[in-house]
Design goal:
Distance between the termini: 62 Å
Number of helices: 19
Order of helices and strands: HHHHHHHHHHHHHHHHEHHEHEE
Strand content: under 5%
Structural class: mainly alpha
Helix content: 55-70%
Low-confidence stretches: none
């Protein structure tokens, strides 16, 4: 069965065109930069420090940059790594549940549309999931140093690894506590110090404040409620026909499954206050509740924890329930997709990118997703300047030598939780500025893509 799980993941790769999530471009660029002996954003002529992404995933990919510049090998490596994850899920679950539940959990993971959507995608959720499983395996076995090293790997892969650190509470003795906590603390401190020394900020921590501004108390409840509904709908949709995946049925089913998992986690904590899996699940749920960006891929590393917690809550009924969920997932979500092209096979702005690719040498692009847009159009890029004054915005673009500004309406920037978030308001203000004929000229438009290209006057 594990071989079939791996083959299923590989059959869906690549599930998305390269660059769709922008971060995949950043990881590839980071890998190339590391292979050249530096860590900066090669797509920007100034090559600023690459402090917006943690370095472990680019470091793992860097050797591939010595072999080729083609994205295909990076996608294949990502697909192969994700294909290993079902075996990791089985290995961890069989220590906590029965063999049947472990195999069903591995199959549920491998066939989840949330997982298959990331097959062959060069994103950090893949190594993060494996590092989290390593942490849980080590913690369950009481091995402090391997658990600490896995936690350090989590933090160097994604800062979200902070949420899983409560799993280290099992290490209570002095030496064990040091072995468990010292590696992640050193990893986080080292990366934060490097990031701050290069950019005067620790970007991922800044992003949390960016979404709330000075209104955290007022926004927290609404963001948490929106996130809860979003992720419950994402979980429920895995087991329903596509026609019901966006509606109340998905929300209701997902909420029921998440409540069941919550009950299982709480029951585990009643039995053992320092249960690593329950603490990691609770910490991760807390982070997802307050984080202002919403992406279904954030659920991918949590799926093994959810399956375990749900099975724990169901007890002897778990094999039948997990099997039923597997049948629903295979029938409604996997079978209809086999043999069909990915809905994300082509860029949403393909025609716009083709027009941009024909621009003269020396063109420099900016946009809300400048790294992705620049990569897919073959142009160097820089981020949009963040300034208060309209005239100063145009002046800042000229100082940065920007010649083309891409505006794309209707794309998902992951900020659905809070329409009043700082980045949302800033993007709306920039779009209004672009419509001012005193400072900008419209040079191209693709109505079918809801995309417009401007240039400064």
């Amino acid at each position: 069965m594990l071989a079939a799980c791996a083959l299923l993941v590989l059959a869906f790769a690549p599930a998305q065109y390269f660059g769709r999530q922008q971060d995949d471009v950043l990881y590839l660029v980071g890998a190339r930069a590391l292979a050249m002996g530096r860590y900066c954003l090669l797509t920007d002529p100034a090559c600023p420090p690459l402090t917006m992404i943690n370095p472990l995933w680019p470091a793992l990919l860097a050797p591939l940059s010595w072999i080729t510049e083609s994205v295909g090998l990076f996608q294949a490596a990502s697909a192969l790594l994700l294909a290993l994850a079902p075996a990791g899920v089985w290995l961890w679950l069989r220590r906590r549940l029965g063999e049947t539940e472990a195999l069903l959990g591995a199959a549920l993971f491998a066939s989840s549309p949330l997982v298959l959507a990331q097959a062959g995608v060069v994103m950090s959720e893949i190594p993060y999931t494996l590092a989290l499983l390593g942490l849980l395996l080590a913690a369950d076995a009481g091995n402090a140093l391997p658990a600490g090293l896995s936690a350090a790997a989590l933090l160097l892969t994604r800062t979200a690894g902070i949420a899983a650190l409560p799993a280290l509470a099992f290490a209570r003795k002095g030496k064990d506590r040091a072995r468990a906590w010292l590696p992640p603390l050193l990893a986080f401190a080292g990366w934060s110090a490097y990031s701050y020394s290069r950019s005067r900020t620790v970007e991922k921590l800044d992003m949390l404040g960016l979404t709330y501004g000075d209104r955290a108390a007022a926004k927290l409840a609404s963001v948490a409620a929106s996130n809860a509904a979003y992720y419950a709908r994402g979980v429920g949709a895995c087991f329903l026909p596509p026609s019901l995946a966006e509606g109340p049925a998905a929300l209701a089913l997902g909420a029921a499954l998440l409540l069941g998992a919550a009950w299982g986690g709480l029951s585990a904590l009643r039995r053992r206050r320092d249960d690593p899996a329950a603490l990691a699940l609770a910490g991760s749920a807390a982070l997802l509740a307050v984080w202002g960006w919403q992406y279904e891929r954030y659920l991918l590393p949590l799926l093994p924890l959810l399956y375990w917690a749900l099975a724990s809550a169901l007890g002897a009924r778990a094999p039948r329930a997990l099997a039923a969920l597997l049948v629903l997932q295979l029938g409604f979500q996997v079978a209809p997709r086999i043999g069909r092209p990915s809905p994300w096979a082509e860029p949403e702005l393909a025609r716009t990118y083709a027009w941009l690719a024909a621009r003269p040498a020396g063109s420099l692009l900016t946009s809300a997703h400048n790294v992705r847009d620049g990569w897919l159009s073959g142009l160097p890029s820089r981020p949009l300047p963040l300034v208060e004054d309209d005239a100063e915005f145009a002046a800042a673009l000229k100082r940065a030598k920007i010649t083309l500004i891409v505006r794309a309406d209707g794309l998902d920037y992951g900020l659905l939780a809070d329409p009043d978030a700082g980045p949302v308001r800033e993007l709306a203000r920039i779009n209004r500025r672009l419509e001012d004929p005193r400072f900008f000229r419209k040079v191209h438009e693709e109505p079918s893509e809801r995309a417009t290209v401007y240039e400064p006057r």
